[in-house]
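Sample intake sheet
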Amino acid sequence: MDALFDRQDAMLNATSMDIVRSFMTHVNWNAPMLSIRGPRGVGKSTLLRQYVKMKYGVGTEIALYCSLDWSYFTQHSMLEVADKFHKRGGKVLILDEAHKYEGWSREVKEMAEVYPDMQIIISGSSLLKILDGDADLSRRCMGYDMPGLSYREYLQFYKGIELSHYTLEEILSSPRSIAAKVNEACRPLQHFHDYLKNGYYPFYLKNPIDYHALIEQTTNYVIDVELPQLRKVDPSNCRKLKALLYVLAQQVPFDVDITKIAAAVALQRNTVLEYLNHMKDAKLISLIYSDLLSVKKMQKPDKIFLDNPNMLYALATTPVQIGTARECFAVNQLSYNHTVEYAKTQGDIKVDGKWTFEIGGEKKSFAQIADLPDSFVLADDTEMPRGNKIPLWMLGFLY
């Protein structure tokens, strides 16, 4: 047990508090049990260590951060650690990389029953199932999904520029005053296209030269390791699944023809649909449907995007089209707190069943959406809004 506290102290000493993501304030840290899921590389582990350091300080024995991929857990169970920690007066047990510990959900459920006065915080892959067949934790656990950096956070992390975030309603109702505040602090277009290429994951500054290679490595790890372990994907199909992702990377936003996709990667149609849903859950892609109310598990999506534009630049073997990057950015940023649908014949996307958006460059017109209420053009390469033409970069201030 002392070894775990010693390791925690070493990690907390090495954890910088210079920048703490605003996601920290969105979590109800008082919940008896909570989970934080998210793609690899978005900063979940850093956030948890920052929380312990900020709330309890180095040297605490009230809270304990453990990563379940540590070699310690090859010889000791989670239940054993929880028992010893509770006997020493521990109150907050943080279990990172939970998906790497077989049977984690059963042991967490038992901990909650045996030690009801001890808070349990779980973190892991986007594929982590809180509603699990072994132990349904959905009624006990408050869940959060952690995204990568927004454009606003990118400006904070990489450029030292601190700005407020806004709701979509605020951006659409008062775009000029918000854009004016941002323009007072910086030239928002100066850094926006760098963000599309390099800004979504907070590890860019640590290794900018290998940034896209690291994204590719992370993607391969999700496909080779996490999908077989957590979604029972046949390991023999992982190579085909990578091929599927690379096909999508060359052509997104993909007008979906499942038969052609299946032929391109030599898989059955239903298998392709199943794998697309697994890839969506893993935050590798986004699936956009024209009618969310009638979506069934095996219904084909209308559009497929990579999860974020940085993945486009990392995985595409042909030059990335700026129009593709723009749409990918818009879907990525809007999907965090809103529902996004394919707009069919008028506009590119529909949000929350209310707002219709057409996405393009500075000269994009209203021709396709002129007669629609609550319709807007999201225009790149512009600093200030004009009527219902909103700068595209403003979506980067939603969180």
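Comment: The first strand starts at residue 33 and ends at 37. The CA atoms of residues 162 and 222 lie 33 Å apart.
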